Amino acid sequence: MKQLDAIIIGGGVIGSSIAYHMSARGMNVILLERDRLGSQASNAAAGMLAAQAEMTEVGPMFDLARASRALFPKLATDLRELTGIDIGLKRKGLLRVAVTEADVTEIQRTLAFQKTVGEQAEWLSLEQVKQREPGISSDLLGAMLVEEDGQVDAPELCLAFAKAAAALGAQIKEFTEVKSLIYAHGRMTGVVTSEGTVHADQVIIASGTWSGPLLEQAGLTCPIYPVKGECFSVLSHTPLLQSTIFSHGCYLVPKKGGRLVVGATATAHSYDRKVTLKGISKLLESAKQLLPGIVETEWERAWSGLRPQTLDGLPYLGEHPSLKGLYVAAGHYRNGILLSPMTGKLVADWAEGKTEKVLSLEAFRVDRHQNVPNERAGVLL
Ligand SMILES: Cc1cc2nc3c(=O)[nH]c(=O)nc-3n(C[C@H](O)[C@H](O)[C@H](O)COP(=O)(O)OP(=O)(O)OC[C@H]3O[C@@H](n4cnc5c(N)ncnc54)[C@H](O)[C@@H]3O)c2cc1C
To answer: What digits encode the pLDDT tens for the residues 285-342?
Structure first.
């Protein structure tokens, strides 16, 4: 059997993207997932590609987000050719709506900084918003329109990455939990799993919220903690919206077949994935404020997931500073779907010994919280 080039731990959208990108470069990889592929955050996501609408300042995250968003059109075609799966890429714009005067001020500030970097975004009056989206509430004060911020179907994206990797030769092993890392003389040599030992000199930790304890084994402190998000979906024969609507209280993401996803609550430090009536009723109240007609729709279902959050809100991306062959790609918080293509590309580059020339990755260094006091990191792990 051909020797493995890399072991990827975690079959969410990040691990699956890495498996796809490495396989596409001819590397022989294995993807290990302790449950089913995409059974955690990646299946819960609404799939917004909010590279501009969610960002509040110019910086490395804004650059990474835009670079990743730009990869989606080609990716959608490539994944469909390899797997037949349609990732549902829609580029019908995102409206960040203003409910209060404070929202107007914040949105105007966001618009100003987008312009400084030459990104397209514009202010729409309520009248203009209603021309695009007649069902929207007349109580809103206007909105920022970002034409480039689209959306995908997150579960399909995760599955398509993994199936495309498999089509290119990757091994996919579900129900296989990585228990510990194996290394010697400053180099990775493999992992111990619930199903036995696997050997490779490159190991990528892409285990979302659960990455911290594995990294602790290698002496690296990357505090990652869960932020539970609850969502629900409704159905209507005629779609209520064309564009994604984004506000402080909730977002509304129109999917194919007249389905509308409403998300999401945020409860930090909760591994409890129960969907609560409190969470859903709060979301429904916010949704009604934006789209009064939602009350006439048919209930579909509710679900939740755990976003992998970090101390500074930025993912950990890079190689362990002293353990050769150990890479981290985790902590993508509320933007993992958006950031998945670029994350996969970066890891594939590092595995080939290439360094990133366009983006500055310093802010994402994996050892930036190495000296965080134990009590702070400990509370969060
Ligand atoms: C409600 C909600 C809405 C969201 N909406 C959006 C959105 O609109 N746009 C966007 O860009 N992002 C969104 N996100 C964020 C996005 O879902 C996450 O950032 C992304 O899914 C993280 O992917 P991941 O692969 O790192 O983690 P996960 O999907 O959690 O995958 C990690 C995987 O690792 C596995 N694992 C853990 N430990 C081990 C081990 N020891 N051995 C083997 N396997 C292991 C787990 O079982 C899991 O499957 C949302 C998240 C939530 C919860």
So the answer is: 999 999 999 999 999 999 999 999 999 999 999 999 999 999 999 999 999 999 999 9
Using CA positions, which residue lies closest to atom 26 of ligand 1? 208
375 has a pLDDT exceeding 90: no
Cβ atoms of 200 and 30 within 8 Å: the answer is yes
pTM for this entry: 0.97
Give yes or no for residue 253 CB within 6 A of ligand 1. no
Which residue minimizes the CA distance to atom 41 of ligand 1? 178
User: CA torsion angle for 363, 369, 370, 372 (degrees, to 10)?
Assistant: 150
Q: Which residue has the tokens 């300042």?
A: 57
Fold of the 90-150+225-310 domain: D-Amino Acid Oxidase; Chain A, domain 2 (3.30.9)
Question: How far is residue 222's CA from residue 152's CA, in Å, rounded to a whole number?
Answer: 29
Alpha helices in the chain (DSSP H): 13-24, 41-44, 60-69, 72-83, 101-116, 126-132, 154-167, 211-216, 277-290, 336-351, 374-380
- Does the C-beta of 261 come closer than 6 Å to ligand 1? no
**Substitution site in 335, 343, 347 for ligand 1 pocket (most atoms within 8 Å of beta carbon):** 335
Cα–Cα nearest to 377, from 252, 215, 232: 215
Q: Is 223 in the pocket of ligand 1 (CB under 6 A)?
A: no
For domain 6-72+154-223+312-380, give the CATH superfamily: FAD/NAD(P)-binding domain (3.50.50.60)
Compute the chain's Rg from CA coordinates: 21
Indicate whether 230 pLDDT > 60. Answer: yes
40 within ligand 1 shell (Cβ under 6 A): yes
The alpha carbon of residue 130 and the mean position of all alpha carbons in its chain are separated, in whole angstroms, by 30
Q: Nearest Cα to 160, choosing from 76, 89, 91?
A: 76
Domain parsing of the chain, residue ranges: 6-72+154-223+312-380, 90-150+225-310
